[in-house]
Amino acid sequence: MAHARFLLLILFLLASCISPARAQQTTSPSREADEALRQKAFDLLDSLAGQISILQSPENRARVAANIVDSIWDHDERRARTLLVSVQEDINTGLRTQENDPEADRQRRMVFLQLRVNTVERISKHDPVLALSFFRATQVPFDATGSDSNYLLMQEHAFELRLAKEIAVNNPEIALDLARQSLAHGFSTDVLPLLRQLNRKHKEQALTLYDEILAKLKRAGFVDDSMAFELAGSLAQSFGPPAVDDVRFRELINLFVRSATANGCNGKLSEEDERTYFCQQIGGLLPLIKKVDPARAASLKHWQPEENEYGSPSPWEELNEVAQDGTVEEILALTKKYPQNDELIYQRAAQKAQGSGDIEQVRKLAADYNGNPAFKQSLMEMIDRREKMAAAIRENLNEIETTLEKMRSNQDRAQFLIFASIQLAPTDQAQAAKLLERASNLIDAMKPGKEQLLGKILVALIYCSKGNQRGLIMIETLVPKINELVSSAMKLHGYENSYLRDGEWNMTREGILGSMLTFLSERAAYFAWCDFDRAVSVAGQFDRPEIRLMAQVKLAEGILAGRPKPFSFGNGMGFD
C-alpha cells in the first residue's frame, strides 16, 4: 500500500505540479547574458536541424523538426520554412503508410493526425494562412479510413474553423471564406466562435457572416434538420442585440415563430405526435421570442418548461474562448454581457491571474468585486490559502518530527518532506533545503525501482528550479539507468506497451517509462536555466539518437521561451 501511495504521489507531482508556463523572475541576470544564452540555444538548434536525417522514423523526423521550426521562426524564418517542407513530407508518408494490419494502420494514422494538428498549431502562431495551407496539404486520404471517414471529415472542418479564428485577426476575408466553406458542408455551431472573433475587430465581416448564416437557415427545415435548429438557437442566445441590430435579430426569431406555427405548436399535441419534441424545444426559446413578438410568445406559452435551455444565455463557450487566449481584462468584460454569471467570470479571471503568478492582480480582483459577499470572501481566501499553509508548516516544524515518527515507510516520509519543503520554500529557503535534503536521503534508501527513480527525478528537478547544480548531477547519474531501461523496454515492445515505431522510440507516453521521458522533456526549461551547457552535455549521454535529439531540442526551447516560473507546489495542484 505504501509503495502504491508513493508512486501515486510522484506521478501526480510529475503530471501537474510543475507548470512549464513561462514568466520572467524578478531577479534575472543581465540582458547581455540572457542574449548570449539565447544565441547558444539557436546555435544548438541549427546543429540539431542538420542531424535530423540520421533518424529513420518519419514520425520522429517530423516531431523533432516541427519543434525546431517553432523555436527558430522569429530568428531564421527562411530556415524554418525549409524545415517545414520536410515535416510535411514525413507526415504525409506516415499517413499513407500501410502495414496490412488494420489496427496498426489505425493507430499509426491517429498518431500522425495528432502530430499534424500539433504542427499546424505551432505554425499558426507565426503564419495562420500558412498553417491552413499545411493542414490541407497533409489531409488524410479519406477513402482509406474506413468507418472513421465521416468522423474525421467532421474533425477536419471543425479544425479549419479553429484556424479561421486565428486567421480572422489579420485576414478577415480569408476567415469569412472558410466559414462559407463550412456552411456549404452543413450546419455546425463550430462557426459561432469565429463569428464572435470577427465581431471583436471586424464587424463588417461579422455581419456578413451573420447574414449568410441567416439566409441558409431560412432555407432549412428545423424539424428535419436538428443541426440547423441547434445552430439557430445558439445564434439567438449568444449573438443578439447589440452585437446585431433589432431587424436582423427579429428575422432570426421569426424563423422559430413560423416553424412553430407550421408544426402546430400553437395548439396542444398528443405525446405520441412526432412534432411534440420540436414544440418542446421551441418552448425553451420563449423568453427570446417574447422580446420580439409577445403575442406569438403568448400563444406558445403552454410549451415553456420550468427551466429553459435557451432563455438565459450561458457564458460557458465564450468564457472558455476568452480565458484561453485573452487577458484578465477581456475576461472581466464578459460581466457586462452575462451579469448573472459574474461569479463564474471573476473566478476564471482570478485563475488566469494566479496562473501567471500575479497575486496582486488577484487581490485587486477581489477588492473590485461588488457582488455576493460570500464569493468575495472566497476570492480573498484563495489568495491567502497557500501562504497560510506554508506558515502553518513553518510554525509547527517541531510537529514534523512527530508526524514522521508515525509514518511506517521511507516512501511516506519522503512524500511528506517534499510537500513540506515546497510549501516552506517561498518564505524559508534554508529550512526548505534541509527538508529536501532529508527527503533525498530517504529516497536513496528506498528499494531500487520505479518509485525510487521517479522520486530522484522530482528531487533533481526541484534542485534545478533553484539553480542548484546538484539537480543536474543527480540526473547525470540517472542517465545510464534510463538508457538501460529504454534498451530493455525496446526488447519488450509489443508484449506490454508499444514503445517503437519504425524501429525507433515513439515518444508518445507509452507506459511509466514513456511518461517519465515525456515529463523530463516538457520540464526541460528548469534544467536548461540551471546550467545550459551542462544540461546539453547530460542530454547528449542518452544512447538513442531520437531521445538525445529531442532532449536537446527541448533544452534549447526552454531557453528561448524565457525563464520558467519559480517552482510552486500549489500551481496546478488544485489546492488553491
Q: Could you describe the 3D structure shown?
A:
This protein has helices at residues 2-16, 31-49, 58-72, 77-96, 102-124, 128-137, 149-167, 172-185, 191-201, 203-218, 226-238, 246-262, 276-283, 286-292, 294-299, 316-325, 328-332, 342-355, 359-368, 373-395, 397-406, 410-424, 429-444, 450-465, 470-491, 511-522, 524-530, 532-539, 545-560; strands at 500-501, 504-505. The protein is mainly α and 576 residues long. Among the domains are: 220-313, no CATH class; 328-383. Strands 1-2 form a two-stranded antiparallel sheet.
Write the layout of secondary structure elements.
Blueprint: H1 2-16, H2 31-49, H3 58-72, H4 77-96, H5 102-124, H6 128-137, H7 149-167, H8 172-185, H9 191-201, H10 203-218, H11 226-238, H12 246-262, H13 276-283, H14 286-292, H15 294-299, H16 316-325, H17 328-332, H18 342-355, H19 359-368, H20 373-395, H21 397-406, H22 410-424, H23 429-444, H24 450-465, H25 470-491, E1 500-501, E2 504-505, H26 511-522, H27 524-530, H28 532-539, H29 545-560
Antiparallel strand pairs: 1-2
Helix pairs in contact: 1-24, 2-3, 2-29, 3-4, 3-5, 3-29, 4-5, 5-6, 6-7, 7-8, 7-9, 8-10, 9-10, 10-12, 18-19, 19-20, 22-23, 23-24, 24-25, 25-28, 27-28, 27-29, 28-29
